[in-house]
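A reminder from the course coordinator: this example appears on the midterm review sheet, so study it carefully.

Given structure:
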C-alpha cells in the first residue's frame, strides 16, 4: 500500500498551485487528513479525484493546454467556458488567472519563440485573452474599503499589455484600487499620473522585452527620484531578482504570486506606520 503524500506533492501531481489543492480539500472535493499538522493525501483518493469528469475540475496541465488552443483559435466563448467550468468546480479567481490563463499564454509565447506559431497567432491569442479577462473582471472585483491605490504600467516601447491586465484584476480582487496605464507608457507619463493620485500606495512596472535594460534603468531612476512610493518591478524581461535590482532602486518581483505578496506587504507596512 502506497504511503500518503503531502498536499504540496499532490498539488504538483495535479499541476496546480498549492492553494488550489487546499481549496479542493476545504470544499470536500479532495479527501485528505491531517498528520502532525500537515495535510496528507492517499494515492487512491488522488486517483479518484483525477478520474472525475473533465468538465468538472481543472485537471493539471491539461486544462491550460485546452485554453491555449482556444486562445490561438481566437475562440473567446470557448476559452471563457473552460475557465467558467473550472471556477464553478472550485477554482478561485487567482487560480483561474495564474494557473490557467497565465500558463496558457506563457506556452503561446514559447511556441512563438520556437517558430511553431506566427506573430499573428500570438496577437490573436493575446487579444482573445484580454477579452476573456474583461469578462472575468466583474467577478473578481472586491467590495468594501480599498487597501490603497496602485498605478501599473508597462515601460515605453513594450506593447505587451496582458501582464498588467492580469495583475490589475488580481490586485482588485485583493482589495486594492488600481489605475492601469497599459502598454508602451513613457516614464514621464507614469510620473505625471502618479502625482495626481491621492495617497498613492505603490507603482508596479512591467517589462517583457530583454533588450531594453537602459530604458528600464532610466525609468526606474526617474520614478525613484520623482515619486515617494515603492516601485515594484517585474516581467519576463528579467531572469531573477538580482537582475532587476541591478537596474535600480526598486522592489523586484519575478512572478505574479510574488508581486501580489509584495503589494500586500507594502499595504501592511503602511498601516503599521500610520497607527
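Designed residues:
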Amino acid at each position: 500500500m502506497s504511503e500518503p503524500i503531502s498536499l504540496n506533492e499532490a498539488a504538483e501531481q495535479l499541476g496546480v498551485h498549492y492553494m488550489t489543492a487546499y481549496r479542493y480539500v476545504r470544499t470536500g472535493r479532495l479527501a485528505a487528513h491531517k498528520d502532525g499538522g500537515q495535510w496528507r493525501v492517499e494515492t487512491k483518493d488522488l486517483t479518484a479525484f483525477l478520474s472525475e469528469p473533465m468538465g468538472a475540475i481543472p485537471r493539471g496541465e491539461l486544462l491550460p493546454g485546452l485554453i491555449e488552443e482556444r486562445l490561438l483559435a481566437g475562440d473567446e466563448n470557448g476559452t471563457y467556458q473552460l475557465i467558467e467550468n473550472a471556477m464553478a468546480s472550485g477554482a478561485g479567481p487567482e487560480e483561474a488567472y495564474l494557473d490557467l490563463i497565465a500558463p496558457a499564454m506563457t506556452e503561446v509565447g514559447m511556441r512563438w519563440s520556437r517558430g511553431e506559431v506566427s506573430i499573428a497567432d500570438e496577437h490573436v491569442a493575446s487579444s482573445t485573452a484580454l477579452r476573456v479577462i474583461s469578462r472575468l473582471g466583474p467577478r473578481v472585483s472586491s467590495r468594501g474599503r480599498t487597501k490603497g491605490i496602485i498605478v501599473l504600467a508597462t515601460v515605453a516601447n513594450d506593447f505587451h499589455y496582458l501582464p498588467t491586465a492580469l495583475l490589475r484584476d488580481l490586485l482588485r480582487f485583493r482589495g486594492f484600487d488600481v489605475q492601469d496605464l497599459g502598454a508602451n507608457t513613457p516614464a514621464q507619463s507614469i510620473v505625471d499620473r502618479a502625482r495626481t493620485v491621492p495617497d498613492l500606495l505603490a507603482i508596479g512596472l512591467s517589462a517583457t522585452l530583454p533588450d531594453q535594460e537602459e530604458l528600464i534603468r532610466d525609468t526606474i531612476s526617474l520614478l525613484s527620484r520623482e515619486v515617494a512610493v515603492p516601485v515594484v518591478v517585474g516581467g519576463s524581461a528579467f531572469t531573477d531578482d538580482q537582475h532587476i535590482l541591478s537596474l535600480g532602486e526598486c522592489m523586484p518581483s519575478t512572478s505574479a504570486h510574488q508581486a501580489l505578496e509584495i503589494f500586500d506587504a507594502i499595504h501592511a507596512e503602511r498601516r503599521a506606520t500610520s497607527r
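The CA atoms of residues 132 and 224 lie 34 Å apart. Strands lie at 5-6, 33-35, 38-41, 149-154, 177-180, 200-206, 231-234, 251-253.
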